[in-house]
């Protein structure tokens, strides 16, 4: 039997809600984004859950093999019926990628464009379908630092 990444057996169920971002526009490479999500043990037994945050850059002008990257995770324990707010902080290291530079090694870059946060590995944010229903476990922020405007890294 094949299991999806992050899937494990449990005697209880967890529900996620109230995904929030502290900001949706990043204008400086020193900015951070605080991300929070409420996790509830909706089952009848105590259990542990690994809360995972993934980041996607739907449109990019440079070639990066990963489309959906696991950036943060936290393992929590909850009694039956209990809820907990899980918080993560994203920095430029999280939304940047490494681009090879001839005779200079790798350079960390982040294009000015939209980025999508997804909670849980199976969450489908359907970023390429403008008419898709909004997924409550997806959120978007826009990077606008002026350091690497979209498309300038093609050369």
UniProtKB/TrEMBL annotation:
The keyword Hydrolase applies. SMART domains: Fn3_like. Pfam families: Fn3-like. The keyword Ribonucleoprotein does not apply. Keywords: Hydrolase. GO terms for molecular function: beta-glucosidase activity. Its EC number is 3.2.1.21. It catalyses: Hydrolysis of terminal, non-reducing beta-D-glucosyl residues with release of beta-D-glucose. Residues 49-123 form the Fibronectin type III-like domain. InterPro entries: Cellulose_deg_GH3, Fn3-like, Ig-like_fold. Belongs to the glycosyl hydrolase 3 family. This is beta-glucosidase.
